[in-house]
C-alpha cells in the first residue's frame, strides 16, 4: 500500500528589506586626544587640531533592516524613523560644538568614527524607547566630506 501524498503548504517568504533615512547636521569640533601630548596631537591631526576647531556639514544615513510586515508592507513607518533620527540624533548634535556640548566626547576624540558609534547608540536607544526591536538597526553612515565617510554596524573588536 502506498501512503497518501500530503500536499505541501505554499508559504510565501517574508521579504527582508533595508530602509534608510538621510539627514544633515552642522557641527563644530577639534580633533584632539586627551591621551596625547599637544605636540603629538598636532602631528597626528594636523590642521584639524587647531585650538578653535573647525566645522562640517555632516550627511548621516541610518538604516534599518527587517521583515516587511505582510499586512502593512513596512518594516517601520518611515515617519517613525525620521522622528527617532530627529529626536535622538539631530537634536543632540546639530549646530553644536561636539567637544564642549556633547558629553560623549569628554574622554574621546570627536572623530567621525566615534561620531558614528554615538549615532548608533542614540538610534539604538530611540528604537528601544519607541518599543521597536533594537535588532532592526543595521548601519550608520556619516559623510564628513564628499570624499570621506565612515560606516558603523554595531560590531566591536575584542580588547
From TrEMBL:
<protein>
    <recommendedName>
        <fullName>6-pyruvoyltetrahydropterin synthase</fullName>
        <ecNumber>4.2.3.12</ecNumber>
    </recommendedName>
</protein>
<dbReference type="InterPro" id="IPR038418">
    <property type="entry name" value="6-PTP_synth/QueD_sf"/>
</dbReference>
<keyword id="KW-0862">Zinc</keyword>
<dbReference type="GO" id="GO:0006729">
    <property type="term" value="P:tetrahydrobiopterin biosynthetic process"/>
</dbReference>
<keyword id="KW-0479">Metal-binding</keyword>
<keyword id="KW-0456">Lyase</keyword>
<keyword id="KW-0783">Tetrahydrobiopterin biosynthesis</keyword>
<dbReference type="GO" id="GO:0046872">
    <property type="term" value="F:metal ion binding"/>
</dbReference>
<dbReference type="GO" id="GO:0003874">
    <property type="term" value="F:6-pyruvoyltetrahydropterin synthase activity"/>
</dbReference>
<dbReference type="Pfam" id="PF01242">
    <property type="entry name" value="PTPS"/>
</dbReference>
<comment type="pathway">
    <text>Cofactor biosynthesis; tetrahydrobiopterin biosynthesis; tetrahydrobiopterin from 7,8-dihydroneopterin triphosphate: step 1/3.</text>
</comment>
<comment type="similarity">
    <text>Belongs to the PTPS family.</text>
</comment>
<dbReference type="InterPro" id="IPR007115">
    <property type="entry name" value="6-PTP_synth/QueD"/>
</dbReference>
Amino acid at each position: 500500500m502506498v501512503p497518501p501524498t500530503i500536499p505541501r503548504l505554499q508559504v510565501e517568504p517574508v521579504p527582508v528589506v533595508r530602509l534608510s533615512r538621510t539627514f544633515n547636521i552642522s557641527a563644530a569640533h577639534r580633533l584632539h586626544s586627551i591621551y596625547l601630548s599637544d605636540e603629538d596631537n598636532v602631528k597626528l591631526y594636523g590642521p584639524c587640531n587647531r585650538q578653535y576647531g573647525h566645522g562640517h556639514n555632516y550627511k548621516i544615513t541610518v538604516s534599518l533592516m527587517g521583515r516587511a510586515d505582510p499586512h502593512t508592507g513596512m518594516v517601520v513607518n518611515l515617519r517613525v524613523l525620521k522622528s527617532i533620527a530627529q529626536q535622538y540624533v539631530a537634536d543632540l548634535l546639530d549646530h553644536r560644538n561636539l567637544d564642549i556640548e556633547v558629553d560623549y566626547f569628554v574622554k574621546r576624540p570627536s572623530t567621525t568614527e566615534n561620531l558614528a558609534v554615538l549615532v548608533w547608540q542614540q538610534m539604538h536607544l530611540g528604537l528601544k524607547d519607541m518599543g521597536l526591536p533594537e535588532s532592526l538597526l543595521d548601519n550608520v553612515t556619516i559623510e564628513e566630506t564628499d570624499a570621506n565617510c565612515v560606516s558603523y554596524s554595531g560590531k566591536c573588536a575584542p580588547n
